[in-house]
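Figure 3 (text version): structure tokens given as input.
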């Protein structure tokens, strides 16, 4: 088996359903898809049944691909997510506001979130509003001289314990988690009936200009903020 990755692998998990999908990177067509509806008397995800679902699918997929799956994106629908809102204000001394000017505020917000929620993993970091010179913007305004600005930032978090359970299930196949994706966030962002896996793929490729990534990942397209933080982290 070669090391040439030509696909993205996704798993969707919820209390009542597990789904897996492999998508061709070149044409976004599905190479493999399977799902399983489960009976679950637990309050949350049944990780034992999730392990069984992996056992039923991973080797089958790798035989089709003639490649090992080394990384996978996991789309999760669960009440275990928690949100935290942070607003930060800074001065810019009349200069044109740039992405570089935001870096301190964004890193400070991330630090404050991690300090507040020590047992949580940040899954998504989203800028919900830019307030520049007392005017609100949904996107970072270009070429705008700025005396002061503030950012309203939302963090979507998941417990380290939950993440560890996922990692333990995947460890058998030596698969790492590329990205954890909140299913509710994906559905709200697109607000349409398109396929969830295709929408999640677009999220991993940086389609939301207001989502900030702090880790390296291989992708055909990187979001504006992701490029910045991969360079400056």
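Below: residues designed for each position.
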């Amino acid at each position: 088996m070669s090391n040439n990755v030509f696909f993205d692998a996704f798993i969707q998990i919820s209390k009542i359903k597990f789904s897996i999908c492999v998508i061709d990177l070149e044409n976004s067509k599905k190479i493999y898809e399977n799902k399983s509806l489960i009976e679950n008397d637990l309050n949350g995800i049944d990780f034992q049944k999730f392990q069984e679902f992996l056992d039923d699918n991973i080797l089958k997929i790798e035989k089709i691909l003639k490649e090992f799956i080394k990384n996978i994106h996991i789309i999760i629908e669960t009440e275990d997510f928690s949100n935290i809102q942070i607003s930060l204000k800074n001065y810019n001394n009349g200069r044109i506001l740039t992405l570089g000017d935001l870096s301190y505020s964004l890193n400070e917000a991330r630090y404050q979130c991690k300090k507040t929620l020590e047992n949580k993993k940040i899954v998504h970091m989203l800028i919900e509003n830019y307030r520049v010179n007392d005017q609100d913007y949904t996107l970072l305004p270009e070429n705008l001289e700025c005396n002061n600005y503030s950012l309203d930032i939302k963090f979507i978090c998941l417990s380290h314990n939950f993440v560890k359970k996922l990692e333990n299930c995947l460890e058998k196949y030596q698969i790492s988690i590329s990205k954890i994706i909140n299913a509710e966030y994906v559905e709200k962002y697109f607000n349409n009936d398109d396929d969830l896996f295709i929408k999640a793929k677009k999220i991993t490729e940086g389609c939301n200009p207001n989502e900030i990534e702090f880790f390296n990942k291989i992708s055909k397209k990187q979001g504006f903020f992701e490029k910045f933080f991969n360079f400056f982290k």
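The longest helix spans residues 47-65.
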